[in-house]
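thread: overnight batch results

M.L. [08:02]
morning all. the overnight job finished for the chain we discussed friday. pasting input first so we're all looking at the same thing
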Amino acid sequence: MKVGIAGLGTIGFRVAKALDEGLPGLELVAVTSRDRAKAQDRLTALKTAPPVVVAGELAAVSEVVVECVPKGAFMEIADPALRAGRLLVTVSGAGILANPQVVDLAWKHGGRIILATGALLGLDAVRAAAEGTINEVRMVTRKPPNALKGAPYLIENNIEIDGLNAPKKVFEGSARDGAIGFPANVNVAAALGLAGVGPDETRLEIWADPTIARNTHTIRVDADSARFEMTIENVQSEENPGTGKITALSVIACLRGLAAPLKVGS
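M.L. [08:03]
and the structure it wrote out:
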């Protein structure tokens, strides 16, 4: 399968390296980036550097398009990929929530969207529970203050998180509102909302916590089939503290599953 990557940041470049090192049945054929020169420079670290193309060309030459761009550029990649009937792999639950028309676009043109698990856990269990009746889904996200800096919600509400010496709750509301206010920080909440009872019914708390070093997410689900609680503590990426290292690995695992003879998990 021919794979193209949009964006060569924290996630995209790690995925590119994995493909370059070899994922059975998959081939990296092209990348696209707003900063073409920087992308070409980064690609020199690979054994076989693919060409840097524009978004439309990426969709033309790839069977699978891996979207790793900021939320604001999501449709620049998703639209041509889905119109070309491609498989779009993304971790941007926030991008999907902001652009719900992508689902109809995929149906109309024979495309498909896979929202990779990203930095979360338990989405299989949530999806299974959603086949029955879910009574409540709650998520509590705790991140070191450096991982939340620059979030639009903090800026718009004049919430100061520098110099904290104790945990501070900076948001409480729906997963949809959290994804809008913290687009670079809580894609996990958007994914949880899409997997379960919906982003408006999924409750979310976000804490800036100077006492921890890892991005931590706790999910609590009460359903007619099961009640469960799960916590994941993600090591921050060196380039972007708001993104856990496991996010890129989740995309790599997703890609590996596309061509593997055995795929574990629903």
